[in-house]
Amino acid sequence: MKLRILLADDHEIVRRGLCALLQKHEGWEVCGEASDGREAVEMAKQMKPDVAIVDIGMPYLNGLDTTRQLLQHDPHFKVIVLTITDSDQVIREALDAGARGFVLKSDAARDLVSAVEALQSKRMFFTPRVNDLVLAGFLDRGHAISRNEPPNLPTLTVREREVTQLLAEGKSSKEVASLLNLSTKTVETHRSNIMRKLSLHSIRDLVVYAIKNNIIQIQMPPQLHHTTESTVA
Amino acid sequence: MAVRILLVDDHPIVRQGLRTLLEGRPGWEVVGEASDGLEALDKVDNLQPDVVVLDVTMPRMNGLEACRLIQQKQKTSGPEVLFVTQHDSPQMMHEALHAGARGYVVKSNAARDLLEAVEAVSQHRVFTALARSPDASC
Question: Is A223 in CB contact (< 8 Å) with chain B?
Answer without folding.
Answer: no
